TrEMBL record:
Pfam annotation, one family: Aldedh
GO molecular-function terms, A-Z: oxidoreductase activity, acting on the aldehyde or oxo group of donors, NAD or NADP as acceptor
Domain Aldehyde dehydrogenase, chain residue ranges per copy: 21-475
Oligomer status and interactors: Homotetramer.
The protein's name: Aldehyde dehydrogenase
Family statement: Belongs to the aldehyde dehydrogenase family.
Alphabetized UniProt keyword annotations: Oxidoreductase
UniProt cross-references to PROSITE patterns, sorted A to Z: ALDEHYDE_DEHYDR_CYS (PS00070)
Length: 479
């Protein structure tokens, strides 16, 4: 037990209230730690700390800011193993995946360090009228609300462009996975980040999150989470005309054409659906396969799923850990039970809670493949955040695209083909913010990331994300 506290103004502080949330290992049910259940007063105090720190932080050079973030990235790499263990204990993912995520945190920090000198204005000659130039300035206090599925990586997505561009920030982590975020924040302080530049307030979204969104001193909100909550954030932010980025839910389709490399596509589907126990916004959630290759593809995929090893993420040779929390676990069990009851699909493998003492106290569910799925099934009409993959046979690319677009979401999609024309058509017609060709899931720090329709507003990552944290001021000169 670490006895974690909130981090406000560079100090570890207790909440104004006296309630705490227990952090539980989703693989074993064991108590790990507890964190304060923050209040509106705590959120306000964190905003004030960020407000007080803003002027000095904004006046530092981008190179000075980059030096601090770069040092922090180096410390994170040195402590990767211990950070990964902490992440696995609170989130559940296999240790290999946790190490990759911690590396990802460092990668994102370092990427934005490389952009430290890139955000500057332009000089604009205006014929017969003189000149104009533009100046880019940080917004002020920003706020980020992040989920539990990739807490370290998404923290980096939020804080890196905000801090490198001279803003201060208040972060609200997910209630079930705050420990890694608090530890990473401490490392940033150790690397020289001034007090108050980054503050972390733990607590429920309806209290802490809403308080941050409504606070008049917060100029920007970046939220990652489910669509319903994102709409609530947008509604609250609108009254203050705050800038908002919303990275919301997705129901990503994967299209496998009859000329695809089936071995590669099977490997892509396995990783794309079952990585992090299927708890990724851009995971493969609906699989559409041409009829002519469906039988062969499904057999190979079923065999691959049967070979996945489920267990405690801290154990060696585990491919998939538990779901992160009871709510997600109950949802997946309910979904599969309803599928069986209504006969809306044929379960080829999985579909159960695994048996045995190793699984009795955790939120485990077998990796599951479902064929012959009814169009009315919730598997095809909801964002299924868990290890259940529906596969649908289609006759051609037109039908695949039509069915893939039959959703309110538009986050990611992938098309698997050797034909450049099919790839082009898929890229043009699929409704998604990011489209992969012959791959799925991976997103580099350099790549703008975000969805369309009910999958969100705005972009994260890449140089485009910096503009979301800067005000553009125009100065006109008459000569």
């Amino acid at each position: 037990m670490i006895n974690m506290k909130m981090q406000i103004g560079g100090k570890a502080v207790e909440a104004c209230g006296c309630e705490f949330s227990d952090i539980i290992n989703p693989a074993t049910g064991e108590f790990i730690d507890r964190v304060p259940r923050g209040t509106e007063e705590d959120a306000a105090m964190a905003v004030e700390a960020a407000w007080s720190a803003f002027s000095d932080w904004a006046s530092t050079s981008p190179q000075q800011r980059a030096g601090i973030l770069y040092r922090a990235a180096g410390i994170v790499r040195e402590r990767k193993d211990e950070l990964a263990v902490l992440l696995t204990r609170e989130q559940g993912k296999p240790l290999t995946e946790a190490k990759n995520e911690i590396e990802g945190f460092a990668n994102v920090l370092e990427y934005y360090c490389g952009l430290a000198s890139s955000f500057h204005g332009d000089f604009i000659p205006i014929h017969q009228s003189g000149y104009a130039f533009t100046v880019k300035k940080p917004l002020g206090v920003c706020s980020a609300i992040i989920p539990w599925n990739m807490p370290a990586l998404i923290m980096a997505w939020k804080i890196s462009p905000a801090l490198i561009s001279g803003n201060t920030l208040v972060l609200k982590p997910a209630s079930s996975t705050p420990l890694t975020n608090l530890t990473l924040s401490s490392i940033l302080s150790e690397a020289g980040l001034p007090a108050g530049v980054l503050n972390i307030v733990t607590g429920p979204g309806e209290v802490v999150g809403e308080s941050l969104v409504k606070n008049r001193k917060v100029k920007r909100i970046s939220f990652t989470g489910e669509t319903g909550t994102g709409k609530r954030v947008a509604e609250l932010a609108a009254s203050g005309m705050k800038r908002v980025t919303l990275e919301l839910g997705g129901s990503d389709p994967m299209l496998v054409c009859d000329d695809a490399n089936l071995e590669a596509a099977v490997a892509g589907a396995l990783r794309g659906r079952f990585y992090n126990c299927g708890q990724i916004c851009t995971a493969v959630k609906r699989l559409f396969v041409f009829e002519s290759v469906a039988e062969e593809f499904i057999k190979k995929l079923e065999a691959g799923i049967r070979n996945l090893r489920v267990g405690n993420g801290l154990h060696e040779d585990v491919d998939m850990g538990p779901l992160n929390n009871r709510r997600q676990w109950e949802y997946i069990k309910e979904l599969v039970a309803e599928l069986k009851e209504k006969e809306e699909g044929r379960i080829l493998t999985g579909g159960r809670v695994p048996e045995g003492s190793d699984y009795s106290k955790g939120y485990f569910f077998e990796p599951t493949l479902v064929a012959d799925v009814s169009e009315e099934s919730r598997l095809l009409n909801e964002e299924v955040f868990g290890p259940v993959l529906p596969v649908v046979r289609v006759k051609d690319l037109d039908e695949a695209i039509e069915k893939a677009n039959n959703t309110c979401y538009g986050l990611g999609a992938s098309i698997w083909t050797k034909n450049i024309d099919r790839a082009r058509i898929g890229c043009e017609r699929l409704n998604a913010g990011i489209i992969w060709l012959n791959q799925h899931l991976k997103v580099a720090p350099e790549v703008p990331f975000g969805g369309t329709r009910e999958s969100g507003i705005g972009k994260e990552n890449g140089p485009d994300a910096l503009s979301e944290y800067l005000d553009l001021k125009t100065v006109m000169l008459k000569t």
